Amino acid sequence: MTKPNEGLCRFRVGPGGRLTGQLRVPGDKSISHRAVMLAALAEGTTDIRGLLEGEDVLATLAAFRALGINARGSTHGRLVIEGRGLQGLRAPLEPFYLGNSGTAMRLLCGLLAGQRFDSVLTGDASLSRRPMRRVTEPLLRMGARVATSATGTAPLHIKGGQVLHGLHYEMPVASAQVKSCLLLAGLYAKGETCVIESVLSRDHTERMLTAFGYEIGCRTGRVCLHGGGRLCAMPLLVIPADISSAAFFLVGASIAPGSDLYLTEVGLNPTRTGVIAILKRMGADIEVLDKRWIAGEPVADLRVRYAALHGTHITPEMVPAAIDEFPALFVAAACAEGETLLQGAEELRVKESDRIAAMAAGLQALGVTAEPQVDGIRIIGGTLHGGRIDAHGDHRIAMAFAMAALRADAEIVIDDCSNVATSFPNFVELATRAGLGIRAEIADA
Ligand code: S3P
Hints:
The protein folds into two domains: 9-27 and 240-442, Enolpyruvate transferase domain (UDP-n-acetylglucosamine1-carboxyvinyl-transferase, Chain, Alpha-beta prism), CATH 3.65.10; 29-237, Enolpyruvate transferase domain (UDP-n-acetylglucosamine1-carboxyvinyl-transferase, Chain, Alpha-beta prism), CATH 3.65.10. Helices cover 29% and strands 27% of the residues. It contains 13 helices and 24 strands. It has helices spanning 29-41, 55-66, 102-113, 133-141, 176-186, 204-211, 243-255, 274-281, 326-334, 355-365, 395-404, 420-423, 427-434, and strands at residues 9-13, 20-23, 43-49, 70-75, 78-84, 96-97, 119-122, 145-147, 156-159, 168-170, 192-196, 216-219, 222-226, 236-238, 260-267, 285-294, 297-305, 313-314, 339-342, 369-373, 376-380, 387-390, 412-415, 438-442. Strands 22-23-1-24 form a four-stranded mixed sheet. It has a four-stranded mixed sheet with strand order 2-15-17-16. A four-stranded mixed sheet has the order 4-5-3-14, with helices on one face. α9 packs parallel to α11. The longest helix is centred in the first third of the chain and has 13 residues, at 29-41. It starts with 8 loop residues before the first strand and ends with a strand. The site of shikimate-3-phosphate has 11 residues, from α5.
């Protein structure tokens, strides 16, 4: 088990400016995790291009190497994985350290519950606070043996050698991590595993299982598979640019007068495009150009230009398709005319940080009216001042406030930004190239 020992990072972002030019943000994080996992479980060699080389995905990759998988790379997003088949993983020698990554922990938990050997999953302070019973409880019902801490958090101790049986599970919360965990466990279960969801969460696992030749039954709100099948390697698996990373630039260009920015090859899976829909409702000028398909996922180039935004009402059913983009959307709301109200988003409180509390505190520090509510927030758009923000080690809080500087009247200083490397390692470089006056520095303490 290794723990990174990095200095804390701070962003200093000068006020004003505009975003222009063309850029491709890194590969989709959700798809990258799944690409590594399914390629490792497939029979044959999969050549992955466009992999996100962020810390979260690298934690997943390290876990599979510890499970005996031979993977060459990754360099410039290229990773070649020699899959060993569903029964080909080897017992790890030590606990897995999964850093900040909820996706790695929850998906691996399902996959490892079906192995012959024991394993232990650990993570950083943030991941060790996040709720894990949402995956362990249904896994126990499948016959798995997984123990959490007394408060339902990591470390997770998984006892191998259990006989799993299929489960029909109605999801109490919209969660692709829970759904994917159960589907991965279902690959090892006797009989049929079905996951039923009333609000659709992202469906990358279903799409990728199909792309790897695994038969699954899908109709709206229900996905089923039988255990005991086989995954066949994909000769070439190209990963689209991450709409969740593009979101910071969509917001930045929308709020900064004079902006005109192209974002290329952005994944537009319909379970992920809430940020575009919400920004458009707010009056944003976003054009979707050259829609096409790569590896079973729709992609397009996006052109975004400055527009005067107005507040909007975001209702609960709109939340899952924009779940990771709310920090950026709150910044858009702070720059919009009038009130924005978000409801039905209590899940934001159990992300890498409590994103409702962290964003409300940060917006207030910049002089914006932001009232946190149990399941959302109310924001009144207005003038943004400079100020000092605590990102709480949450990558998306840090990047959202970096973009806020485009409309602030003085410098914004953001503390605790190291985890930007979990999802967007070259954020500072790309943001600088687009026109943001951002500097990263090592904090003294
Ligand atoms: C993810 C699903 C979402 C999302 C997370 C990535 C995934 O979490 O917030 O960043 O890759 O499956 P939930 O499934 O918990 O909503």
